[in-house]
Amino acid sequence: MRKTAALCIQKNQQVSVPGISVDVVDVTGAGDTFCSSFVYALNKSDNLAVVANFANAAGDRTVTVMGPWGGVSSSEEILDFMKQKGLFSGNEYNCFLG
């Protein structure tokens, strides 16, 4: 069972995001990537679950790459990672494209 990776609370809404199973290479920058991706996602979507899942995927993807620049990736790369991990299949993340 995956542990909770993020618990996001906004007014009367609470979203718990499960961790993503990855092979960890280097944890440098994972928290920074999560936080910056969360702020970016908040500017793209009002759906807290979409925002939290996007940020979580960005942070989890970061630990699969060596070095502090591992978290530097485009929205498309994060969405591809999410697709590979089976995290979505619909259009809820289209707000991050283009």
From TrEMBL:
Keyword Transferase listed:
yes
As one GO molecular function, the record gives: kinase activity
Cross-referenced InterPro entries: PfkB_dom, Ribokinase-like
**Carbohydrate kinase PfkB domain span:** 5-68
Q: Which UniProt keywords apply?
A: Kinase, Transferase
Q: What is this protein called?
A: Sugar/nucleoside kinase (Ribokinase family)
